[in-house]
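Our consortium's second objective concerns turning raw sequence data into structural hypotheses that experimental partners can test. To show how far this objective has progressed, the report includes one record in full. It was chosen at random from the queue rather than selected for favorable results. The single chain below, 327 residues long, was entered without modification.
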Amino acid sequence: MINRILPTFACVASAISLAAAQAPEFKGSIEKLDPALDALLDANARIEVLASGFNWSEGPVWKEGRMLFSDVPENTVFGWAEGDKTASVVLKPSGNLSGDGGQGSNGLALDADGSLILCQHGERRVARLEKDGSFTVLADRHQGRRFNSPNDLVIARDGTLFFTDPPYGMKKGEQPDAPYHGIYSISREGRVKLLIEDIRWPNGIALSPDERQLYIAVSDKDDTRVMAYDLQKDGGVSNGRVLFNAQKLKSAERKGGCDGLKVDQLGNLWTTGPGGVLILDKNGRHLGTILTGQATANCAWGGEDRSTLYITADMFLLRVKTKVRGL
């Protein structure tokens, strides 16, 4: 086993809501655990701080030349583009429209038309943002039961949308309709199907490049892990198994659990987990970690060639240049 720690302190933008003098110093590094990491990250790769001062940054997605991401407690979608000194408000409210203190949007994705699809915590639904600023509800319940608080999503090439539904974003005092934390699909025609109901605290979700595997990041504080399932032709799943157990990595220095999850074009998994972003091969071998020093929520590729990994880590928006492209 090889360990490489590279200190990375580059800061290219100032705080969004905190004065620069008040923003805590960011200290990150890249840990190499396997020589195979060299094919994915340059030996001199550095973590850049693009903006800071957020309450809890989440759900990044690349759209029309800029990175969009949620600040969940602030009920806001922000945007950042190359040359910006700060991130700017793109959408507010983003996920709780009533103004009663509920949580905003979390996971974001783009459909085939480039429309923004949002997991809206406060409204307990998955919705599409229309050009006029209105929302079209794609789904808000299954068999008459309201969702808990849709958390993260991925869209297949045929338009099928998969999402996780833990209760993290439910309003205080709300009670769940369903006795489980579901993982669902929504067909292009709007049919909702419950795929998995035996996981507590499902969070990030992704597909393999051939779309034969469905991956779930589980943020259970007592058993944080990445699950893999085989996708069936009828849209169901089978053969659920633990691809990587991250519980053993948790420590006072390595905060967080398996949360957001993305896959590169080679089939490697980049999942947030204890300490930052864990880089796994398709068999679950841990190749290295982008250590952020923060409880890290999610990540997504962006840039013109999709070879830059953007990371939402607590109050920070970060990025790392990679040698591989995201899906």
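The partners drew two points from this record. The first strand starts at residue 4 and ends at 8. Confidence is low (pLDDT under 50) at residues 1-22. Both points have been shared with the crystallography group to help prioritize constructs.
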